[in-house]
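Q: Entry one of two.
A:
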Amino acid sequence: MKIAYTAVFEQESNGGWAAYVPDLPIVLVSADTREEAERLVREGIELYVELLHEEGKPLPPAAFQTQQIEVAANA
């Protein structure tokens, strides 16, 4: 079984990257590069899922969704 969770990536003012998973509030990472943040957030999700399995708890549903909304920038 596979499940996909949404990860949100934000570039920090110092040039680093932060990432979090809204459906899994415990998964929050900070890294120097986007690639490192992606790796760390994937590891965080995998560890969280593993912990839930060990505790016999169900996986949270992947309920968070995103959509890009384009607007005119002629302000």
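Q: Entry two of two.
A:
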Amino acid sequence: MKKFYGTGTYVQSVGVKNDLEIDGFCIAVCQEIDVELSRHRSRSFDEMEQWGDDLSSFDLVVALSPASQRRALELTRVFHLEVEYWPIMDPTGLGETRAAKLDSYRQTRDQIIKHLTARWPPPQEIT
């Protein structure tokens, strides 16, 4: 989101659970488009609230898995907050070789980009 639309919108990456480390294949395919994830750490919905991010202050939750959609809907049922589900392929465990695994992760990355650009106006070049 920040790569294509800048930092004018407050964005948080949250999951159902905290995996701490970002998958190396994810880091590699995002680096290909100049998105730095090596220092990124994932956190759970519960951690987000513990660290002071109130879900009611957000306008939209984009869920990328059925489990995250269920959790988001549970947490937001008392807020006027939109939850969208984007069916994105989970590349974890796909592919036998490093090249095949990277191809799977690229497909997932590109699916996310496609959803972003379909949801919001065309991205502007960020300098």
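A: Comment on entry two: The mean pLDDT is 85. The domain at 2-119 is CATH 3.40.50.2300 (Rossmann fold).
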